């Protein structure tokens, strides 16, 4: 029987003049694979190695400039992998911007254990399976969801057979095992309830709690001391042009049953005493009736468990009653994904199929119910005019001023595997030699400098509204003071950027 090591690479947090926040959370995808292997009787030895958990920083000088890494350095990673001596090494890569680190870890793994089989999975490699396979340190690429494919691959390797598994590439000719679709190359698990609960016992959950509560959470607002991410559904039928989930989760929305969610929450509460849930589904509120049933589960919990939706939910389908039950069930704030204040941009550029009038209803309802609302916007998409972008900035500030809807303004990122990425590449709107980052697009309407200038002005006005709201509302003052204290260093950074200090 083989020994399998599943790895999460260290993170690059400063490279070529760009900064990224170190982020650590329990690796749910990997823990779901482990649980699936166990449930299906795979009797090999499984280990998990998360190179981020040391939370150390290493700075090196490379050709492109200074690089700072978060987590174990290469020597430590190589030593850890060699000590475990696995037969198969799986490396997870969640974000395209971190793909070079995942690849570096694959090289380190191959050097440490030359006879081991190295497998890569995750969103980036699901979009570029063939290119990833060209790397000499990578033996197999798993596209899409990993549970069933990893089990099938391990069984083939143990039997000494050449794998021929849809969605698993080991040789260039395996491309025939992929679907002929530009974004979605594989099929997806139909019944997500057939998956066992993630194997939390495989990791040091306390260490994740500690790092998250001390500034390394991926969420911009981390209120819990023992917070977990939970995913109650996979996939999304919508086709927003910038969205990258379809290559890994598909267009078909598949939800866990109330019974499954109840068991999951009970496990986390009883075994790990969790005090907060971040629901990070791709589309948590796609089915309003199912969302109501989720609220029923949360309303049953005594004492209540605080929760939020940091990925954002749809802005349609809300009623006053639904918002009230959301608040009563423990929701601390809702994040809603609006994207643009211009209906035409929403329809033709973002292609979100969202009616702005319904979003306004949600703002009124949450204001009435005293439930905090945060809104995500994105500007700088090809097809937008400068006046559209200005309208979104104005809308975001006006809704913050009037209803207290905190504006989370994003500058467009053309990720690979998205319709936006395809348009940008086709029209040559971005320098392809740059690592993926926000605000790199130049169109006939705007340049990154135009967007940056407007964004700075927006940030300054946002800070002024923040101060005004704090001084005129006792409730906002208390909330904002705790926010400032908790996020003092990142707020100071934002302040410096906004005022050019
Ligand atoms: S952005 Fe949200 S609604 Fe749009 S496709 Fe992605 S998950 Fe679906």
TrEMBL record:
SMART domains: Elp3. Residues 222-454 form the Radical SAM core domain. Keywords: Iron, Iron-sulfur, Metal-binding, Methyltransferase, S-adenosyl-L-methionine, Transferase. The keyword Protease does not apply. One of its GO terms (cellular component) is cytosol. InterPro entries: BchE-like, Cobalamin-bd, Cobalamin-bd_sf, Elp3/MiaA/NifB-like_rSAM, Methyltransferase_Class_B, rSAM, rSAM_horseshoe, rSAM_sf. This is Radical SAM domain protein. It comes from Magnetospirillum gryphiswaldense (strain DSM 6361 / JCM 21280 / NBRC 15271 / MSR-1). Pfam families: B12-binding, Radical_SAM. Residues 1-164 form the B12-binding domain. One of its GO terms (molecular function) is metal ion binding. Signal peptide: none annotated. PROSITE patterns: B12_BINDING, RADICAL_SAM. Its cofactor is [4Fe-4S] cluster.
């Amino acid at each position: 029987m083989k020994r399998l090591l599943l790895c999460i690479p260290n993170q690059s947090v400063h490279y070529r003049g760009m900064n990224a926040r170190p982020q650590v959370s329990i690796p749910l995808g990997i823990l779901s694979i482990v649980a699936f292997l166990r449930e299906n009787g795979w009797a090999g030895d499984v280990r998990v190695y998360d190179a981020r958990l040391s939370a150390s920083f290493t700075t090196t000088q490379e050709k492109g400039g200074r690089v700072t890494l978060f987590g174990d350095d290469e020597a430590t990673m190589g030593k850890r992998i060699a000590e475990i001596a696995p037969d198969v090494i799986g490396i997870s890569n969640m974000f395209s911007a971190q793909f070079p680190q995942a690849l570096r870890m694959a090289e380190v793994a191959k050097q440490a254990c030359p006879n081991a089989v190295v497998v890569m999975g995750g969103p980036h490699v699901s979009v570029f399976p063939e290119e990833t396979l060209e790397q000499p340190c990578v033996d197999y690429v798993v596209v899409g969801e990993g549970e069933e494919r990893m089990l099938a691959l391990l069984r083939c390797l143990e039997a000494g057979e050449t794998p021929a598994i849809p969605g698993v590439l080991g040789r260039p000719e395996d491309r025939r095992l992929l679907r002929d679709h530009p974004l979605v190359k594989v099929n997806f698990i139909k019944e997500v309830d057939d998956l066992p609960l993630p194997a939390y016992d495989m990791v040091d959950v306390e260490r994740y709690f500690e790092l998250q509560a001390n500034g390394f959470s991926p969420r911009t607002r981390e209120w819990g001391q023992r917070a977990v991410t939970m995913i109650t559904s996979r996939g999304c039928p919508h086709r927003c042009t910038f969205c990258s989930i379809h290559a890994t989760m598909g267009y078909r929305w598949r939800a866990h049953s109330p019974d499954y969610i109840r068991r999951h929450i009970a496990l986390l509460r009883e075994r790990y005493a969790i005090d907060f849930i971040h629901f990070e589904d791709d589309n948590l509120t796609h089915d309003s009736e199912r969302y109501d049933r989720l609220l029923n589960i949360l309303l049953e919990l005594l004492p209540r468990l605080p929760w939020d939706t940091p990925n954002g939910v749809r802005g349609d389908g809300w009623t006053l009653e639904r918002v009230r039950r959301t608040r009563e069930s423990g929701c601390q704030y809702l994040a809603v994904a609006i994207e643009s204040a211009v209906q035409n941009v929403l329809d033709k550029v973002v292609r979100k199929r969202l009616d702005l009038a319904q979003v306004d209803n949600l703002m009124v309802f949450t204001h009435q119910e005293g439930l905090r609302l945060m809104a995500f916007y994105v500007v700088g998409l090809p097809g937008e005019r400068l006046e559209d972008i200005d309208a979104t900035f104005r809308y975001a500030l006006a809704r913050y001023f009037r209803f207290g809807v905190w504006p989370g303004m994003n500058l467009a990122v053309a990720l690979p595997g998205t319709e936006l990425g395809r348009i940008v590449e086709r029209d040559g709107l971005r320098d392809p030699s740059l690592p993926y980052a926000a605000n790199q697009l130049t169109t006939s309407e705007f340049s990154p400098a135009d967007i940056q200038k407007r964004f700075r002005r927006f940030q300054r006005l946002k800070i002024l509204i923040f101060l005004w709201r704090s001084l005129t509302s006792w409730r906002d003052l208390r909330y904002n003071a705790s926010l400032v204290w908790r996020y003092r260093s990142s707020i100071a950074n934002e302040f410096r950027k906004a005022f050019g200090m």
